[in-house]
Amino acid sequence: MQIVTTHQSTDFDGLASLVAATLIYPGAVAVLPRITNPNVKAFLSIHKDLFSLYRTGDLDLAAVNRLIVVDTNKWSRIEKGGLFRDQYKPEVLIWDHHDPADCDMDALWKCQESMGANITLMVRRIKEQGTQISPIQATLFLIGLYEDTGNLVFPSTTAEDAYTAAYLLENRADLSILRTFLQPAYGERQKDILFEMLKTASRRKIHNYSASINITHINGHISNLSLVVHMYREIVNVDVAVGIFVQRENDKCIVIGRSIVSDLNIGAVMRSMGGGGHPGAGSALLKSVNPNSVREWIVELLKGNQESSVQVRDLMSSPVIHVTSDTSMSEVSRILEVENCTGLPVVDQDCLKGIISRRDFKKLKKAGQLQSPVKAFMSTKNITIGPDKSPMHAARLMVKHDVGRLPVIENDRIIGIISRSDAMRYFYDALPD
Ligand SMILES: [Mn+2]
Questions:
Q1: What is the pLDDT of residues 392-415, one digit of tens each?
Q2: In angstroms, what is the span from residue 117 Cα to ligand 1's centroid?
Q3: Ligand 1 being an ion, which residues bring their Cβ within 5 A of it?
C-alpha cells in the first residue's frame, strides 16, 4: 500500500499537496494528520466528502510500503513518523519546498525546490501529465498557494507560483470560496498586538451603534496593522473599531478605523483628522499628540459623524424670529403668515419656552380663543440641538422626533434655529458632482 501524508498542524498548502499527490499517484491513499490548522478544519467540515481522506488509525501502517511525504521533509513533523522511520521503513518519496538542508529523511526520490508554495511543484507535474483538475481541486490548490505566498507577496514567491495561480484560475478556481477560508498574512507580531489590544478592549455606544477605540503602544514599524484592526473589530464584535497605535520613539500616532455601518463613516472621521479612507475603512497619521485626546476626538467625531467640520452653527438662522409666551394666537397667526413659515419658537428673555406651529391651531375650539396667549397652545416638548453638532446629527433628530426645526441652544439660551431645509441644503450642496 502506498500512502501520502503531510505535516501535522496541516495548513492549506499541506492539504492541497496531499490531494494533488493522489492525482499524481493514482491508488495512493491520502492520510490527513489528526491536528490541522483551524481554517483547514473549517474548510474540511464543509468539503470533507469531496476528498477521500484517511486517518492513521484507519489503516494498517505495517502494510505501507511507500510513503509519499508532501510539504515537509522532517520525520518529527509527520504523525507516527518515528514508527515509519524505525519500524516499518517504507520507501520514501518527498515533495517539498522547504530548505533541503533541514531534511532528515532518507528518500528514494525527492523533488525539493525552493518555491513559494509546495503546491506549485505538484501542479507542475499534474500539468505535464495532462491530468484534468476539477474546480474544487483548483480552488483548494489556489488557497494553498495564496496562503503560503501571502497572496503572492512574500519574498519567497517565484514567477512559477504566479503562473500556477493563473493556471488554477483558468481551471476555474473559485475566488469567493477562497476568500472565505483564506487567512490574510498575519504573523507573530500582529498576533502579539491583537492580544495586547484585547487585554484592554472596551465597548461603548455611539448613536445606538457599538464602538471600540483602543490605544496600544508599538515599537518600530509593524506591517498590516489594518488587518489587526479588522480582526479586532470582528472579535470584539462592534460596528466600529479604531486602533490608536502609539510609536513613542518617533512621537507618532497611527490611527486606523473600520466600520460596518454606513451611518458611521470612518473615512470621513479620518479625513477630519487629516487622513483619509472609505466609509468602511480609513487611517490617519498624527504627530506629537496625546493618545487620550485622540481617543476623545474620535468619539466626538463619531458622535457628530462629521462629514466635514461644518456645524449647526454655520447653517442656523439667527437672530431667531420668535414670539413671547403672552403673544396672542391671532398675532402668532399673523406672523406665521408674514414670515411664511410653519412654526415659531416661543422665547422669554432668550429662554426657549416652547414651539408653536400651524398644527397647534387645531387645538383652538372657538374663535374667541384667538385672543388667548400662545403659552396655552404651544408644544413644550422641546427638541433642541447644540451649535457644535453636525448637520447629520440635526437631520437625525428631526427624523426621529418628526419635527421640522430645531432651536439651537447654547448656555441655556436660544441662539438660532435650524430647519429641515437648512440641513438638507447642506447635504445637497455637500454632495459631490
Ligand atoms: Mn508549504
A1: 778 778 877 878 889 999 998 999
A2: 5
A3: 13, 71, 118, 148
